[in-house]
Specification:
- This protein is mainly α.
């Protein structure tokens, strides 16, 4: 890579970093190309030359974020810790950047109004996230924590239901710690509260 290519790459990285910072802080709809250019210390023309549009930056920032979350999940699945601890970390880990995305309406901005991004998100989930979650479920079955008679699809739907509860506003507030523990008990042991471990 020669000097020109290196400078170009550095500018692209600076633009993406600035876009992510502003998108997470203010939401994409409230962020302008001029603001991104100012934070990245480049011209607006440079941003358009490299990326074409703000929508393209939103796509790239979201893809970068998803890759990071996938890497964290894969690291969790590979760790030598008990299965319930893995599930608890998967369900309850508080990630500040994710919370900022939720608080600022990031997902609402990029929802079904953007078919191209929705297609990318669905493809990422099916080809990368889902296989990782299935490996985790298999570990749970092999260790005796997950009933082998329950299909992976059933477990996935159950986990999605639990996550929907956790996405409710205020769920991670400090005064809801007891409620979070109750949800964890339900996830691990069900309504009967029975455990073989």
């Amino acid at each position: 890579m020669d000097g020109y290519e290196k400078r170009t790459q550095q500018k692209k990285e600076a633009i993406l970093a600035a876009a992510r910072e502003l998108f997470f802080a203010n939401g994409p709809s409230a962020t302008s190309i001029a603001e991104i250019a100012d934070v990245a210390n480049v011209s607006q023309v440079t941003i358009y030359n490299y990326f074409g549009s703000k929508d393209r930056l939103v796509h790239l920032v979201m893809e970068q974020y998803m890759q990071e979350k996938l890497a964290e999940m894969e690291e969790l699945v590979a760790r030598d810790i008990p299965f319930p601890e893995k599930i608890e970390k998967l369900l309850f880990a508080k990630n500040e950047s994710a919370k900022e995305i939720e608080d600022r309406g990031f997902f609402q901005f990029i929802s079904m109004e953007d078919p191209e991004l929705r297609e990318m998100l669905d493809e990422f989930t099916q080809s990368k996230t889902l296989p990782t979650v299935l490996r985790l479920i298999k570990q749970g079955q092999e260790q005796g924590y997950v009933n082998p008679g329950i299909s992976a699809k059933g477990v996935l739907l159950f986990i999605e239901g639990a996550r929907a509860i956790m996405e409710r506003p205020g769920f991670f507030d400090e005064d809801n710690e007891k409620l979070r523990r109750e949800i964890a008990e339900l996830v691990f042991y069900g309504l009967l509260g029975k455990t073989n471990h």
